[in-house]
Design a protein that fits this description.
This is DUF1376 domain-containing protein. By secondary structure, this protein is of the alpha+beta class. Helices cover 40% and strands 11% of the residues. The protein has three domains: 136 residues, no CATH class; 75 residues; 74 residues, no CATH class.
Length: 346
């Protein structure tokens, strides 16, 4: 049975952030917002080949479009894990609803499946959309979970070629009260670059940015907003109302956080040494098991409510790989792993 996904028509078709998007870009975004494998937080595992087929494209075409969306800071895509984060998700979905009594367990599970480098920026963006009470509840629920890496398991997906890693966020309907952004009158570390904005519009733009910052609705730095407005002028499609456009950008543009450095991917010698070996974590009362393959993928069994769930995923470049290199994972026999894969508890 299909799930209902709601799209804010005005927030999509009239969004200033999508004005430079092509028809292909918008088609891909609509698909990502309504994908059959999407979840309630807008960050989920998907395979380019299958996503492309659902739209009627080739895989290469899909990857090229996603690269353009990355360049416009509308999505992140992690190729090793085949994981996408739709950064305009909260245009169309209410963050507070995901912390409702019936959905919060699923929300925590989805968050635990995020690639490790995305966890901190995702939580920062997500918490900004919650009330203080819900933020405290979220922290409590996260602290109550075991601090282990949960790998996404695309059960029905095969192996696809990777694309480029993407970064961004942009959300226009947020009502946060962030006051960390400096005002236009505050001393800046470096002078802001106002080039690219016509002198006839610059006053309106600066006034709009200052207004957004005074009200606490601006979520990006002054330079980032000016650059976004200038980019619109450089596209030969200047906004009809420079002040209104700048105010909308100030509300919706979020400066991407710097992504933590990832560990180096596993070498051929490491994969050869690990091939066929089975590991589990955490050491006490383990709930996740894997058998490493020399191809760089691992066969996985995760115990969910006492029931084993079987699948495959790339070994990746996150905490799990670091723990494996540092010898922090407990090795188990192949017999135990094979029994789990067959649904037999040890």
């Amino acid at each position: 049975m299909g799930r209902q996904r709601t799209i804010n028509d005005h927030g999509f078709w009239h969004s200033p952030l999508l004005q430079q998007c092509t028809t292909e870009d918008k088609t891909a975004l609509l698909h990502l917002l309504t994908s059959p494998v999407s979840n309630i937080i807008g960050a989920y595992a998907l395979v380019p080949r299958i996503a492309a087929a659902e739209i009627g494209w080739s895989q290469d075409q899909w990857l090229q479009v996603v690269e353009r969306l990355r360049a416009e800071d509308l999505v992140w895509f992690e190729p090793a894990r085949m994981f996408v984060w739709v950064r305009i998700w909260w245009f169309h979905n209410l963050a507070s609803q995901t912390m409702g009594p019936k959905l919060r367990a699923r929300t925590i599970e989805n968050i635990r499946q995020l690639p490790e480098p995305w966890l901190a920026p995702f939580l920062a963006d997500y918490k900004a959309r919650l009330t203080e009470e819900l933020r405290q509840l979220l922290d409590t629920l996260l602290e109550g979970d075991a601090q282990v890496e949960a790998l996404p398991v695309p059960h029905e997906y095969g192996i696809d070629a990777p694309s480029n890693l993407s970064l961004h966020n942009s959300n226009a309907n947020d009502k946060t009260n962030s006051k960390l952004t400096p005002t236009l009158d505050a001393p800046a570390e470096v002078p802001v670059d106002k080039s690219g904005i016509p002198a006839s519009s610059l006053g309106q733009v600066e006034a709009a940015i200052a207004k957004a910052q005074r009200k606490g609705v601006s979520k990006a730095g002054t330079q980032a907003i000016l650059s976004a407005v200038a980019k619109q002028y450089q596209s030969n499609r200047p906004p009809k109302d420079a002040g209104a456009y700048a105010y909308a950008v100030a509300q919706s543009l979020v400066t991407p956080p710097q992504q933590p450095a990832l560990p180096a991917p596993p070498s051929k010698s490491e994969l050869k040494a690990w091939a066929g070996r089975c590991f589990c974590w955490p050491a006490e009362n383990p709930s996740s098991f894997m058998r490493v393959e020399e191809t760089g993928f691992c066969e996985q069994v995760t115990l969910k409510d006492g029931e084993p769930r079987h699948g495959y995923a790339p070994l990746g470049r996150g905490n799990l790989l670091s723990a494996l290199r540092e010898g922090k994972l407990r090795e188990v026999s192949a017999v135990i792993f094979e029994d789990l894969a067959k649904g037999v508890r040890p």
